[in-house]
Amino acid sequence: MLRAHMSVTTIQQLTEMMVIPCFSLHRKLARLHRAVGAVRWRSSYRPAPLLTAAPARALIDEQISIKGRFLPPRCPVTVCAQMHSEDDDLWEAFAHYNTNADGTVNLTKDHSVGGSYLGCEPMGLFWGLQPAPGAREGLRLRKKNVEIPYVVHMSLLEGHVSPSEGQSTELAAVTTERWYMAPGVKRIKIRQNGIVGTLFLPPGPGPFPAMLDLWGMGGALVEYRSALFASRGYASLSIAYIGHKELPGPQNRINVGASYFNSAFNLLRDHRQVCADRVGIIGLSFGVYLTLRIATETGAKPSCLICINGPIGSAIRLSDADGRTEDFEGQQKYWTYNDQGHVSFRDISLPANLPPESKVKLENLACPLMYIVGEDDLSASSIENANLIEETLRAADKSQLFTRLSYPGAGHLIEPPYSPNSRMSLWSVKPKKLITLWGGHLAPHAAAQEDAWKKILDFMENNLRR
Q1: Residue that terminates a domain, selected from 179, 212, 246
Q2: CB 227 within 8 Å of CB 185
Q3: By residue range, what is the domain housing residue 339?
Q4: Shortest CA distance to 254 belongs to which of 301, 157, 176, 324?
Q5: Is 285 in the active site?
Q6: What's the total number of domains in the chain?
Q7: Are residues 84 and 194 in the same domain?
Q8: Per the residue annotation, which of 412, 422, 425, 445 is the catalytic one?
């Protein structure tokens, strides 16, 4: 038995001789140190465990460095990230690591051996976020208020554990903020000429190159990609065209025509802080059809187009030649369901199923087009549409205008990097509850988003700045 009169040196020597690398050993030794109360200890204590995330405030597309220090060597630890959405749902991710010989863990170079992801994934705790156990069904993480950040609480836990088990010991913690809007970016509400949108301007007087930003049939006014474009030096106008209370109803159909989109493009082009001859358009899902239609049929002259997982024609039957549509539910004959009753809209947008009168005149394309394909897309027939675009442009002797990016394992919702993918989410509650399938597996989808975003910015740089 160790006695209280043993010297500090003796206890330290015993500590060095012990080779069992675990937290229980260090707890026992700590109790032993406290028991020798009569001894005045020299400055040989190990500092308390520390978790850092740098920078603590960053844009959503920026990597941060996450490190744990002052830990026992060769010990199991868990690094956990938790955050609440703006609807107050808890999202979390975690990863298991083993500390290095110097008592550190560095997510930039160390490998996760379990949890939400495996391997060296510096940003895995962000793209790996998923609804916590017991959460509502069908959640999808989408930023609503871009003027406030996501606040992510990161913690360092003892052992290889799952945060939901609730039995873990927190060793250290840190909070980080993830922003879509950089300091100095201006957000301007647009309600002009019937347009419902939001304009984002970078800091400074301009003039700036610009992007018109179009989303899909999920509706509402989605601002976060435009905010991020402005943070990267591009003016960007995001517009609503369906499912918004300030647009003509009913909300389950498109009740604005070609003039609405042409007016939006012209409003952006003619803004005093925008370079009139350097305006591009980006569209995702149904926004791809709108992007192609604006570029080929309205008289607008965009400098470039970026299309992500969408069709060359309207996936909804048109009610007039100006582009207004019937109800989305009218296309149910092409809906398919999996064994859980979740719906896929993929077959609606097969080129053979698109209304012939809605297909855009691709041969009229006069600017560079980048088309991004998620090969596990369960919501749109992206591969087939990309093939048709490529074939049509080749036949028109315009192959030089076409760039194709294709990502195995990526789903429909290819968004800015490090944001988590939802393989499925709630589509509607009325007239009945529907969960729709988007596709995509976490790790390959995250890799696709990171690579695609870099190439999107490069494409914009080459076509809007040079």
Answers
A1: 179
A2: yes
A3: 186-465
A4: 324
A5: yes
A6: 2
A7: no
A8: 412
